[in-house]
Amino acid sequence: MSTPNDAPPRIGVDEWVARSGERRDRGSGPSAAIVRALERVGWWQRLAVIAAIVALFPLLTSSDYAVRVGVNTLLLATLALGLNVVVGWTGLLDLGYVAFYGFGAYGFALLSSNQLGSSGIHLPSLLAIVIVVVAAALLGLLLGLPSRRLQGDYLAIVTLFFGQIFVETVTNVAPKVTGGPNGVVGIDPLNFFGLEVTTTRGYFYVLLIVTVVIMGALHLIDSSRTGRGWRAVREDPLAAALMTIPVNKVKLLAFSVGAAVAALAGTIFAAFQAGAYPTDFDTPFLILVYAGVILGGSGSIAGAVLGATVVSVTLELLRNPSQAATLFYGLILLTLVVRVRPWRKLGAVLAALVAFGFAVHAVIGAISASAVAGHPRSGGWVGDALGSWVVVPADPKGPGNIAFVVLILGLVALVQLKGTARTVLLVPLLYLAAFVWETRLVAEASITRQILLGAILIVMMNARPQGLLGSKRVEVL
Amino acid sequence: MNARDPRSHGRRWAAAAASATLLAFGLAACGSSSGNSGSGSQTSANAGSQTGASTGSSGGKACTAAIGIEAPITGQVAQLGGEQLHFTQFALDQYNQKNGTSFSLVQGDTQLTPAQATTVTQQFISNDKIMAIVGPAGSQEVSAIGPLASRANLAMISGSATAAALTDGGKYPTFFRVVPRDAVQAANDADYIIKTLRPKQVMIVDDQSSYSTGLAAAVEPLLKQAGIQVDHESVNQKQTDFSSVVSKITPETGVVFLPWQVATSSQQFGQNLSEQGKKAVIFATDGSYSPGQFRSPGAYVSSFAPDITAIPEDADLARQIKARYGSFGTYGPPYYASAIVAADAIDAVCRSGQTPTRANVLAQVRKTSAATSILGQPIRFDAKGDLVDAKFSIFKVGPDGRYSAVPSA
Amino acid sequence: MTFFLQQVVDGLTTGSVYALIALGYSMVYGVLKLLNFAHGDIYMVGAFIGYFVLQAFGGATALVAPVAVVLIAMFAAAALGAGLLGVGIERFAYRPLRESPRIAPLITALGVSFFLENAVLLLFGSETRLYSTSSFIPFSTGVHVAGVNISLVRILVVVLAAVLMVGLRVLVERTRLGKAMRAVAFDREAAEMMGIQVDRTISATFFIGSALAGVAGVMAGLVFDQVFSLMGFIAGLKAFTAAVVGGIGNVPGAMLGGLLIGLAESFATGYISSTFQNLIVFGILIGVMLLRPNGLLGRATLQKV
Fold first, then answer.
1. Does any domain span residue A275?
2. N or C terminus of chain A with fewer C-beta within 10 Å?
3. Are the beta carbons of B264 and C234 separated by less than 8 Å?
């Protein structure tokens, strides 16, 4: 607030005005024509085209793993759509959301396995799903009840308790019914009128249909009176009440719809995994769903799906060290290209970086042979290309750790600096980043995956606080 | 953040471009993940050691394959998974060095959740270099990935999934474990408590994990049959203070049975006991078998494996691992054994002149017959995949924290 | 009676640790209206700093300096390190988002939390470190009266927590900085117009809040012995709960909330059932929230229209 660059106070600016600048910007960008052309295509047509493209995906790959990632992505997208109703549209911070996902999974599990009774219960899938989803919607109403009295973070904490209570209940309360920590196993596959869905591809299409239908339904609701009511309650409950919107009912409805969507995803997940286990529905997973919604743009249907896709696909890419390396170096390059202007400067930085690397390698190699004895841990061409450029000591753990800490401190310093000093500092920092990657991060692939997820969340939110497809809006506090 | 701020324009495009690239990467990578499995998608287990042969370039017809590990490398029980990962890495490094093979290790972090375990397993299946899985760590993960792995003929050799149900009825024909099932340990422990310690009352505290509740449920009826009064408590695994549970221990409670996964938590329980001056004796299970971490004097620990730091043949190995990765507990050595089983099987296939495939590696794992192992006992599997002749020993923790075996009841 | 007192002692120690973490949570929330989910991880870093200071003094069994000196060094280093970390996080991850919708910094906070947890895992490995407090502060040094055993460490923790809480109260109520903090919390823009340096005040708030978390980390290490990279996750959730139950943004409320949760936990285990401990505690807290929708000490805010 103290620097002149910062936004002036924008009291009294409403959403439409806040977005006017954004709208004006669109007309001047390099690809404005494309953007405008895209905008002329109707929402439904866009949905149909994208759905059709996504439907081709399993046909283009022979890998069951890729399709499974697709299934996981669609599950996360469905969950994000439901959460978007509660958080994005109605503005209720629901931290117990993932419990409904679990409720759906366990509900379906109990109705379609040998778990209960002597020979188990095996309802037709459609019936089981309907029962579970309706029950979840009712449970959502129940959880929504405190929202009549509680606001904001006080509501958040009660819903958080609810989420924890769910996990505790299925783990401890009746191990005979829910299987305790071992969960429910041997769940029937989905079965629609004799047609069993047993393949990963089958589940992909079931989920694709579910996701598209939910997107369509939510789009209709969004532009209906209910949808406007949700957003009105989010912006200002008091004003909404004065406009004769039944605030409490509208909130309860949001909880209920969110819960039903989550439970629906849960039923399909349980059938897909053929099992329901308590640890799958704990807080860490909730965090991913939130990340999807907010990264995509809170309040946007397409944003929720895109955000979930980004989160899910990124996490899978990072599993594989060579893809993670491509992502790591690719994102650094991309950031440089976008942020370092003019082109002259960018060229200078890159040239300096290359020269700096060879110089460091030569100097350190001359001082101690063992300090450059290692080989970059990235496999394939990346490792070979970096072989004589990046220093890799024979025992890289200690130096790599120190460099990691220095790198973070350097990044913090980089943000504080301005002008030439910043550009100059950039060169050694980039080199340090490569050093840390090749010595430590690639070797600890699983830990790196989590570190990068954290870094990506921080950077993306800083780059675009309203989310990828979100719209700017001003909060009335 | 002003909409008219020229910077926001660039940022928007930056974000859009970044996400578009990310998605493009994603589709390309996922779409081709079965194809690129050879192109450096594995970190070589031996890339760090100078002596290890560099991947794929060792002369002659080096036996080349990948082994996947499924363990909770990050997340709430990272202390378990980290150890499992390190011992597996170390085992393969050594094996490669000794036998001139070139086995690489692919990490699969499951965070002990079945959902992630299934995705990881599917990834392993679509990577045609992977011949066997070391792991997974949790029993619930085994039941989640069992069907997938059996369809792919992929052997999974766990060093920590002990639930008895896993090998009942041959549900998962590709599942093996180098650790005995719950039932064996429960009978053994209950026997010792009843015949040797002879308490009037026993407090059983489970930690709400699959491992713990299974073991607790198996021991409880045995103690009750012997006329011992049992108080069954339970704590959350994430809990760090047990004073309130400890304060419920009565003077009649002779033994506290702690089938816990985390050795340092058992240590804390012991601290809480002495803090409150309670006299009950801790009887912990293999989850707490960790001389560096659980050293409550006078406690008993049952374990299927002896202290590897105390076995002369293993002492050197233990020292090297400690130097490279820091102190360790009970979860590493069985993973070392699992990794060796997998490596031996692949090597045997190679030596018979065949190219390793999942099916012949699986057949070879089934035939495993190692006269000795890091666990101090021979490793052979029965038809269900259980360890044959699983031996159990009970150790007493001395005043200096040293473990010494006690004669069984 | 001894059983009851034992439960009180246990509850107070855990509660004090929760309360100290909750204080920082609450302070940050007060000035920024931000749920700083990375706060628990700052606590974890504090515990690690304390551990390494302890090692630097020769380790638990072979201390080269008097115990009091070591303890002071541990607390001071952890407070300083955690405080600086907090300031850095605010500058780097939260300040650019100050004018955006509230939900955006929530995600950066989660990102910071992931980052810290796993950076520590990368640097220090997955093994659980032990303070082994009883080697240098033996249990026998505590109070042992009529069957109630209170170790010196627990007394130390409770007393130190109480002192810090009183100190913080004085700071917020009596000093210029406290006044600035309250002004920023009340209305940031108006405060700036009155000449209060908002950025500096927010940094100071982060420093103090994070330093308290660092101290709490060392306390946790001393009482509960175990230090590992994910210890902050659960502690953070508990502290968040404590802060909200007490009335978020309200300093005495956070203390009260922390102590309430600590006591509820120990009594639930002691008197009802250890298995259902969490269920009982959550049940109690939901009850509290429904009876006092703005937390124990929170006041219903008047809505500005």
1. yes
2. C
3. no
- For A435-444, B223-232, C184-193, C294-303, which range has the lowest pLDDT when averaged over its residues? C294-303
Please tell me the distance from the alpha carbon of residue A170 to that of residue A161, in angstroms, as a whole number: 14
Q: Chain C partners of A279 at a C-beta cutoff of 8 Å?
A: none
Pick the last residue of a domain from A275, A303, A318: A318
d(CA C268, CA A135): 31
pLDDT of residue C17: 92
Rounded Cα gap, residues A317 and A315, in angstroms: 6
| Residue A279 sits in the same domain as residue A392 | no
The alpha carbon of residue B128 is apart from the nearest alpha carbon of chain A, in Å, by 11
Q: Which of the residue ranges A127-136, A147-156, A317-326, B186-195 has the most confident prediction, judged by mean pLDDT?
A: A127-136
Asked whether the predicted pLDDT for residue A287 surpasses 50, the reply is yes
| Average pLDDT over every residue of C80-105 | 89
Q: Are residues A73 and A121 in the same domain?
A: yes
Q: Which CATH number, 1.10.3210, 1.10.3470, 1.10.357, 3.30.1660, labels domain C2-291?
A: 1.10.3470
Mark yes or no for CB contact A444/C96 under 8 Å: no
Phi/psi-derived region of residue A121, left when phi > 0, alpha when psi is between -120 and 50, beta in every other case: beta
Distance, in Å, from the CA atom of A11 to the CA atom of C113, rounded to the nearest integer, reads 32
The answer to whether residue A411 sits within a structural domain is yes
Q: What is the pLDDT of residue A362?
A: 87
Query: In a 3-state reduction of DSSP, which class is residue B198?
Result: coil
Residues of the domain holding A427: 323-463
Distance of CA A149 to the CA centre of its chain: 31
Report pLDDT for A326.
85
Question: A85 φ, ψ to 5°?
Answer: -60, -45
Within this chain, do residues A454 and A406 fall inside the same structural domain, yes or no? yes
Domains identified in chain A, total number: 2
Q: B284 pairs with which residues across the strands? A: B258, B301
Q: Among A201, A200, A195, A193, which residue's Cα sits nearest to residue A273?
A: A200
Q: What is the CA radius of gyration of chain B?
A: 23
Domains and CATH numbers, chain B: 64-180+311-377 (3.40.50.2300), 182-303+393-406 (3.40.50.2300)
Judged by a CB distance cut-off of 8 A, whether residue C7 touches chain B is yes
Is the pLDDT at A62 greater than 70? The verdict is yes
CATH code for position A73: 1.10.3470
Nearest to C48 by CA among C104, C120, C108, C116: C120
Does the beta-carbon distance from A7 to B1 stay under 8 Å?
yes
Write the pLDDT tens digit of every residue in A128-155. Answer: 999 999 999 999 999 888 888 888 888 8
Identify the chains in contact with B, defined as 3+ C-beta pairs within 8 A: A, C
Q: How far apart are the first and last CA of chain A?
A: 18
Contact status of A440 with chain C (Cβ, < 8 Å): yes
- Identify whether A17 is part of a domain: no
Query: How close, in Å, is residue C142 to chain A by CA atoms?
Result: 36
A283 touches chain C (CB under 8 A): yes
Query: Averaged over C209-235, what is the pLDDT?
Result: 93
Examine the pLDDT at B23 and tell me if it is beyond 70: no
Q: Are A111 and A213 members of one domain? A: yes
Look at residues A318, A336, A363 and tell me which one is the last residue of a structural domain: A318
Residue A336 domain flag:
yes
| Res B180: pLDDT | 87
Residues forming beta bridges with residue B403, ordered by sequence position:
B397
A327 and A313 within one domain? no
Q: A175 to chain C: which residues are within 8 Å by CB?
A: none
CB–CB of A454 and C35 under 8 A?
Answer: no
* Residue B357: partners with Cβ closer than 8 Å, 6 or more residues away: B131, B349
Same domain? For A159 and A192 the reply is: yes
Each residue's pLDDT tens digit, C81-91: 999 999 999 98
Model pLDDT for residues C5-50, shown as the tens digit of each residue: 889 988 999 999 999 999 988 888 888 888 888 999 999 999 999 9
Strand B175-177 with B369-370, pairing: unpaired
